[in-house]
Every structure is written in C-alpha cells, then in structure tokens.
Prior knowledge:
- By secondary structure, the chain is of the alpha/beta class.
- 37% of the residues lie in helices and 21% in strands.
- The chain contains 18 helices and 23 strands.
- Helix 6 crosses helix 12, helix 14 (365-378) packs parallel to helix 15 (398-410) and helix 17 (446-455) runs parallel beside helix 18 (485-507).
- It is globular.
- The protein starts with a helix and ends in a 6-residue tail after the last helix.
- The relative contact order is 0.08.
Amino acid sequence: MILSELVSKNKILTNILGHLDHQILNQEVKGISSNSKDIKPGYIFVAIKGKNFDGESFIKEAKSKGAFLILAENKNKKNCVSITKGTSRLVYSTLLSIYYKNQPNVIIGVTGTNGKTSTVEFCRQIWVQAGWKAASMGTLGTKVGTHQSDAVYNSSQNSLTTFEPNELYKNLNFLAQNDVSHLALEASSHGLDQFRLDGIKFSGAIFTNLSHDHLDYHGNIQSYFSAKKKLFTDILKKQSAVAINIDNEFGKKLYEEIASKNHLILTFGENEKANIRIKSITHNNQTLKISIEFRNKIYDATLGMIGKFQAYNVIASASICIALGMEPSFVFKSLSYLKPARGRMEIVSGENHNSTIIIDYAHTPEALKSVLLSLKEIKKANGKLITLFGCGGDRDKGKRKLMGKIAHEYSDLIIVTDDNPRNESPAGIRSDILNGSPTAVEIPDRNKAIKHAVSLLKMNDFLLIAGKGHETLQTVGLETLPFDDYAVAKEALKTMNLIEAWFWTYCGQKKNW
C-alpha cells in the first residue's frame, strides 16, 4: 500500500501526515512497527513510551534498519515527524487498522473485570451452532471453529488479554481472509486505555461486571471504570448492539450513562428491570439449571458446568447474540450445548475418587468470592472446602489482603503458595495474603502445595486451585518455567488413586478418602 493511499483513508492521519513531501507519500509501506528490532526497509516506525522502554531511544536503530518514516511525540528529534503528545498509541493503532484492512464482518468486544474469557468463548460456540465460521480472541489466544470441524488454538505471543496492536490487527486480517465472519474478543482496560482497539469496526459490546483489579495501573476504581466505559462511549458506532449486566453496580451506572445513546441495548441479570431476566439458577451436581424470562416467555436450559457466575457469562453471550438479531428461541436452545473454557471452573476427574478438584483462573477478590460461594452451595455438609491460591508479582498489591480475607471467610482450609511472583519477593507476596488469612498454611513451592492439598482430600471435599487457570508457565524473577495446575493435580490424583487401590488390594477395604 502506498503511504498517500493509507493516509487518505483517515482524518487523523491526513492531519498529521498529509503535508509530507510527495516523495515520502509515494513510498510503498511494507510494514509498521513500534519495535525497532522488527524494522525492515520500507517500514514505518512509531516511537512509543512504554512501562519499561521509551521508543525514542531506538529511533537511530530504526532509521539504520531502513524505516522511511518515523513518528515521535518529541518535537526536537531529527529525522522524525512530530505528533501531538499522548497520541502515539492512537496513531499506531490507526495506521495498523488501515494497513491490515480486512476484519470479520461481525466483531463484538467483551469488557469487565471477570468473565471475559468465558463469554467470548460462549459467543463463538453459539455462532458455530448457527453454522457460521467464528472465532474468539483474548487470554487463551485465538480460537477458530466451524460446525464441521474442531476449533484450533493459536496462542498469543505475549499472553495479553487484548493483543498488542501489531498482532491484533494482523490477526483480524488473517481471520477475515480465512472467511471468519464472527469474532468475539476480550477488551481489557489496559487495551482500551492504550487505544489498541480504536481501529476495530465493532458491531457490539458486552459489559460483564466491574470490581477491584488493576488499580496499580488505573489508580482508583473510577479511572478503571472510565477505561472500560470508553468502549461504549468512544469506540462503538451508532446502532451498535450492547449487552449490560445491571446486577452489577457499575453495569447500572454504565446503562444510565449510555441509555440515551443510539444503541440497541439489552440488559441482563436477576434485576426485575432487566430485559433478559434470570428467574432462577439451580445447582445439580456438575450442572446448572437456569430459567430465563425474555419478552414474557420463559426459557429453560441445563448447562454442563458449575458456578453461578458461569450462568451470568452464558446469559451475557446469549444477550449480545439476540441484540445482534439472532432468533431468541435458537439462542436459548443452544445454551445447553455450551462447553466451559479451559481453566474456568474446570473439573479434574479421577477414577474411584469421591472428592472434586476445580481449576479456576480466579485472581481477583470478586472472582475468588464468586467461585467459593458457588462451591459452598453445592458442597455436602460433611465435606470440606480447601482453597489453594497465590497472587502475582508486579501487579495490584491492594487485592492480596482482600483475597486472603475472602479465602479465610469461605474456606475450611487455605494453602497460600506462589503464583507468578515475577520480580517481587515471593515471601513478601505471601505475607500480604496472610495478613488477611492468618490461619492459612504456607507452602511456597506450587507443585508441592498442590500435591499436599490433593493428599488431604476426603470424601465429599472440594479443592479449589485458583489463580492460574489455563496458564502453563510460572514466572519467577527472569525465569519462565513450564507449570500447569491441571497437569500437576491430575498426576497427584493418579498417585492418590494408586494408593487407594493398594489399600483395597492389600488391606481388604477401601480407604475412606
């Protein structure tokens, strides 16, 4: 694509670059990057100041590697086109969205503190049941599937909830070129605040909930909410489909603020004023039965998953599909066929064992509380609830004590361990958690902690292994090592079953686990 053609397609770019010399405007753009290591001849380099690096420090390298155009916010830099302070990220995303011009026809963004990963996956599955080639994109990477074939994961290179702009728009272009018509993607507060999503042609958006998280980045809960709200107020075009959980106080607030805008809004929740009202949610062993009222009709579905919050995620996905124009009866009928996302209330099964192990990504106070309340509701009176978790390093420190308190209040036994301590002191992180949970057992090594927790299980007990969910890596300092909660728990359970079999064979009776 010639630069002049790229610039002409957007007012922001026309204002910034339209005055350039014709020789530059007639250059062919062969790529765009904010990473000087990726620059090749014919590329545009955008200097962005990040958390750890300042792109302006790499301008010389980008120039030497063949960048024909360099954009920077510093007016005093030579060989650069100066752009307004604070706009480099927006300009970068805008350039990429035009350069990688193709996007799926229907794209919905899902934002909120909890439930994003499950909700985008449920949207994808409903669309696949309708016969469309659909995808989900976010924490689990990019997942594509059709009604005829199994879905395939393509992991994100950086494990971010919302991909970095270069990877994001390249993925959108790839999906569109491969006939994906529908896409649900996770819209993180970081991604929204950093303008990564501003170039996406959204058809709609979902607000799942909002609670304490990422305050190390946003400073306070109001700024965090404002970042989420941007999807609905600044990015969505008129007549977009919107689904909002009005059982959440911030969901109510969002609805009140955008109700007058020209969107097609469906609210959902147990609230009597909800458009899609949850009449009841009933746990039954490893299933949920939900009853939903919409336009004076009652719809029932049995979900093959556990956790009340999962019902909310399912209904969030149903709400946006209906807001987009799908037939309600088909959507509600499809809910019984949905499968949970990896690491979200995932049950670790084992033979001859009468306890339950759950792997869940819960890493915020509200998420942990929701999981524990759900498990307490289905746990039998004579069973115990064991909670194993830690908190990540270099992240919101304020939630650690809160999560400790929640675990202390709703668990019978707590094991505090490490969870991606990164560059922080693991002992310091655990100490922060223990301030809220003084009776917890502290086992730093997560592998040993999980094996110990499994060894404690008796009949009707529940073990929640929280925090990492689908993750298969553990980051300690500068080292990132393979680690999978599910695999470790499965192996520990296998060992336990072997011991049980030994007791049965040689002692003539089953051990009452």
